[in-house]
Amino acid sequence: MVMGGIPYYLDMLDRNKTFSQNIDSLFFDHSAPLRTEYDFLFRSLFRSSAIYRQVVEAISSKSKGLSLKEIKEALGDIRDGGGLSVVLDNLCKCDFIRRYYAFGKKERDALYQLTDMFSLFHSKFIRREEGIDRHFWSNIKDAQHNAWAGYAFEQVCLHHLSQIRSSLGISGVLTSASAWACKRQIDKDGAEWEGTQIDLVLERADKIIDLCEMKYCQADFIVTADYERHLRERASTFRHFTKTRHAIRNVLITTYGLRNGIHSSIFQSTVTMDALFAM
Prior knowledge:
Elements: H1 7-10, H2 19-28, H3 37-45, H4 49-59, E1 66-67, H5 68-75, H6 83-93, E2 97-100, E3 111-114, H7 117-125, H8 142-158, H9 161-168, E4 175-182, E5 185-186, E6 192-193, E7 196-204, E8 208-215, H10 225-242, E9 247-254, E10 269-272, H11 273-276
Parallel strand pairs: 8-9, 9-10
Antiparallel strand pairs: 1-3, 2-3, 4-7, 5-6, 7-8
């Protein structure tokens, strides 16, 4: 979630230090070797590195990503003329960002989302920090850590879709992955619907749709009564606005597993972190 599995970075870890101490010494110390690595990456990969950095930093401002129109608005006076399209294509090919489509949307409605773990960590904690505490990671507040960890874990999951399909037993089933969201609104019949967002929708050729919840947790995930109600309402909202007739299942993708309880049956399948890295 920090280094994106890059062997060169992982090789810098000192087994005699805790994880937090390692992150502090590699990113936040005065002579931290990875503190300036982000700048070096762009200069070494792209000729016009400043434009590429601007695009990545614009996309990183919104967790669900930006549309092409929103990227152009964020960049201001940078002209497209085909140039921006080339930049976006190159960033996709280098796995800095991903191009994806919301459920039921067409190609022209593509969104671009930051998926590179190293760039995500840098943009969240390092890019705007000058004179930061050299022990920042050891003393990070839970709210800061949890917000980043939740989003970073989602990106790890999205990098391992084939393993998720395998764990669900649908490797041989044609499956498309997308996201879906809707704003709070009143439909034509006068019914009020709460806004909701689903970051991973697996639409399967066997006429089943898996609505996937990706949850980072440092223990078994616990489903409360409120959370079960939220999932039921979300599935109902999805069915109402997409008009799908497919069967809908709730799938949990989490770090360690699901704790059995009176509300846990809302999930029909669970995928753990171990499955993401299965060969």
